[in-house]
Amino acid sequence: MYDSITTLGNSNIQHGTYNDRIYLIKLSQADFPAIIPKLDSLASQKGYTKLFAKVPGYARDTFLENDYRIEASIPKFYNANQTAYFMGKYFSETRKQSQNLDLIKDVLIAARSKSKIETPIVLPSCNFIYRECHEADVLEMNELYKKIFKTYPFPIHDPDYIAETIKNNVTYFGIWHNQSLVALASAEMDLQASNVEMTDFATLPDFRDKGLSTFLLQTMGNYVQRKGIKTAYTIARSISYGMNTTFAKMGYFYSGTLINNTNISGSLECMNIWYHHLSDR
Fold first, then answer.
1. CATH number for 175
2. pLDDT digit string (tens) for 222-263?
3. How far is residue 103's CA from residue 190's CA, in Å, rounded to a whole number?
4. C-alpha 165: how far from its chain's center?
5. In this structure, are 87 and 109 located in the same domain?
6. Inter-axis angle of helices 241-249 and 212-226, to 10 degrees?
7. Whole domain around residue 271: which residue ranges?
8. Is the pTM here over 0.90, yes or no?
9. Shared domain check, 252 and 235
10. Is residue 81 located within the same domain as residue 183?
11. pLDDT tens-place string over residues 138-183
């Protein structure tokens, strides 16, 4: 059911009918520019309606020349130096057009109106604990994700997938209330490029509006900064007031919207890119 995570040459990609796209996750310079027609060929063979590529600045112009468009960018993404460009190429007019532009605009206005929090966020005092998650927590983590997300772009509904990611530079953080897991998030670190994706946020409905996601993001930022990570970012649901506001509160900057990019909660959704240079904290 889920899209495959594999390699094309020396580059990392995800592709499949679940998200109806190819996602070039990490471009190897050794594959550039020959990878571009290979991506086109794979998309044509499978009938995908979108190519989504995250590429370093040196590759931007060549991707633009091959009918990609820039949907977002993050300066100083690679080792606090080179810019990353999030680029889309469409094979469907329907896929290219968002039906929620007014709502997305309202969400951004609301998020940006929230001031950056200057004082540390603390957990509610009653029966809440926070800690890093371990392999022994995988089944409980899996159950929480299944309750929150009908669909998700990566197979977090599969406990084996979660266990595997824990072994590969993904650190999960959880909040428990009376020994029950009620909130989760993860930091997916690229130690070589010194950046991290803050992702997989999920909070049970009864525990929302308590600042748990903001606490997780704050604590995760402190954790990855100690690991030497320079830049943090997220790919957030564009119509989620809560998640966009969480990142705005923590000093993240909005840098663009990925159109009809991700199968999440049952349908393809646009996603917002937010980033923060941790050295600016």
1. 3.40.630.30
2. 999 999 999 999 999 999 999 999 999 999 999 999 999 999
3. 32
4. 15
5. no
6. 50
7. 101-280
8. yes
9. yes
10. no
11. 999 999 999 999 888 888 889 999 999 999 889 999 999 999 999 9
